[in-house]
Amino acid sequence: FHSPPPPFFFFFFFFFFYTPRIQLRLAGEKRKHNEGRVEVFYEGEWGTVCDDDFTIHAAQVVCRELGYFEAVSWSPSSKYGKGEGRIWFDNVRCTGNERSLAQCESNGIGVSDCKHTEDVGVVCSDKRIPGFKFSLNIQVEDVRIRPILSTYRKRIPVTEGYVEVKDGGKWKQVCDDEWTQMNSRVICGMFGFPGDKRYNTRVYKMFARRRKQTYWDYSINCTGNEAHLSSCKLGHTLAIKANSTCEQGSPVVVSCVPGRAFAPAPMAGYKKAFRQEQPLVRLRGGAVVGEGRVEVLKNGEWGTICDDSWNLVAATVVCRELGFGSAKEALSGGQLGQGMGPVHMNEVKCSGFEKSVTECPFSMDKDSEGCSHEEDAGVRCNVPAMGFQQRLRLSGGRNPFEGRVEVLKERNGSLVWGTVCGEGWGIMEAMVVCRQLGLGFASHAFQETWNWPGAVNADSVVMSGVRCAGTEMSLSHCLHHGEYLSCPKGGGRFAAGVSSAPDLVLNPQVVEQTTYLEDRPMFMLQCAYEENCLGSTSSSTPANSYRRLLRFSSQIHNNGQSDFRPKASRESWVWHDCHRHYHSMEVFTHYDLLSNNGTKVAEGHKASFCLEDSECDEGIEKRYECANFGEQGITLGCWDTYRHDIDCQWVDITDVKPGDYIFQIVINPNYEVAETDYTNNIVKCRCRYDGHRIWMYNCHIGKQTFMNYASSH
């Protein structure tokens, strides 16, 4: 009567009431530390997770278990490279509310019929869960280098001291029993230093004997090519004696070697920015120190690197080579602007220990000729904390991105805030201010700041004769008069000021929703013909014949940090009879119809614009208007709409054959006005024309590969 329960009952009972204890990490060929292949540590072995049945809910559980706020996306088919070892989970089905991946339904731990080509990856948000208690992933804010010896306490940046981890709200030392030089290399890289060096162990051992230490419970095992401590393996729990000392050792000390641009100078505080004499690698297009498009010198010509297989390991080689630490991010898709010249390298595969990215294996295939500058690779590097931002501020502006420049200077033995003399102040000096404050590119430099009343107690001039090359990390690195100031007009209203850049973004949905064809007779297009808005064959078109026009509206938003103002002064604006107003920018947009391989099929034209505020976000007033020779620009938080029924707001497709095309709009194409981000200045749409009608679809900002879209439809 009481027959024994079937075997599967025990299996169900075991997994229902027992959740395996696992640890997670993100590994593989990744571009940020918050993305990668999902790896599981169980019973002393790292393994992977299969992509079968995996969903965004499972990604949510993984990211939250790792201490991130949420999941952004997930990727099947070993996007981050094939893992090794066991595949610990298969057919994972999560609701999204589980506290651990091990609590989700699955075939059971270690039960899988998958291969490593099916390893799953996730991208987590940058935002961390506040107060999250990490078992494996360690936040960079939870690690520090604490200077111990008096010679290092006053130095900026801090290069030597105890490695300490914040655990349970308390800073704890790390036992050096199992510490390796590779661990030191990773720590130094995180804090912006390219390498580490030996230090005087005897002094630190004497110091450790005099103080009681509180040790962290874990050891760390890094291979040395990790960009971040969170990518290292966590070692076993150390057996800490009751007296809180290491059995055979003492607290871990690191001594980092700064890049020469950041080397502390004994007297001056900082050395002037260092330039290599014959560099093979450089960064271009970055708004702040340590970021940019990667360019390499080959056969006497600078060129770029294609982003295929570009990852954190290769980016870190670049960063260390240039005197920075490890990479925070490996950028793809020409995010920091498109370069010029040849694409020198593709499919770069670095081990992480090369002295230069030019030593890494890479592809020389003819396939790399398919790489365009839309695929230029870039980096964002960890840089040392120099305290530059604390010595400079913008005061009196309407927002944090503009204002009078005020600097902290030593006067009569005390530090005081004061102004910079406006005489000779220009865009190069403004660029350095914005870089020092981490605000991106400068838009304008002001020699008078009467409309920005700064702090009253900071009116006095404390810096004059400033001349910058534009590449300096701090205003103090620029040439200036030193203690002997010369500023005939004085400070106050004649102090220097800056505003950082706007950011124009074209609304792709408006383009998609307003597109249509119009057959317009030539006699109604005389004005447009004179402004070169028609195809070249229009010159032989009879007055009673038609031109076929692809019409659309464009709505251009300013989402940046300041107003967008034309480069040209009012007296050089051009009157346009067609529109009955002045145009302040002769080339503001490019309109083009392209074949699927990027060749122009319609003679696109360069449209000139009058810039004004058509509409604004709630609470923002319009400031610019074209009528009556008014001031031109686009206010921060407003947008300029060029309606489809305005002359020249079209592409002439009279001579285009039916087919599938790409429609492309580029705003501010010649970079005449500085912006915080040029990567969102382009809109592309897929376009189908049957000779009578036109369909515009899949409009989007920036680069996107249409091949994937086409193959899935």
UniProtKB/TrEMBL annotation:
Gene3D superfamilies: SRCR-like domain. Residues 24-125, 145-257, 281-382, 392-501 form the SRCR domain. It catalyses: L-lysyl-[protein] + O2 + H2O = (S)-2-amino-6-oxohexanoyl-[protein] + H2O2 + NH4(+). The keyword Coiled coil does not apply. The lysine tyrosylquinone cross-link (LTQ) is generated by condensation of the epsilon-amino group of a lysine with a topaquinone produced by oxidation of tyrosine. The keyword Transcription regulation applies. InterPro entries: LOX-like_protein, Lysyl_oxidase, Lysyl_oxidase_CS, SRCR, SRCR-like_dom_sf. GO terms for cellular component: basement membrane; chromosome; endoplasmic reticulum; extracellular space; membrane; nucleus. Residues 1-24 form the signal peptide. Its EC number is 1.4.3.13. Disulfide bonds join C50-C114, C63-C124, C94-C104, C222-C232, C350-C360, C468-C478. Transmembrane segments: none annotated. It holds the Pfam family SRCR. Belongs to the lysyl oxidase family. This is Lysyl oxidase homolog. It comes from Cyprinus carpio. The lineage of its organism: Eukaryota, Metazoa, Chordata, Craniata, Vertebrata.
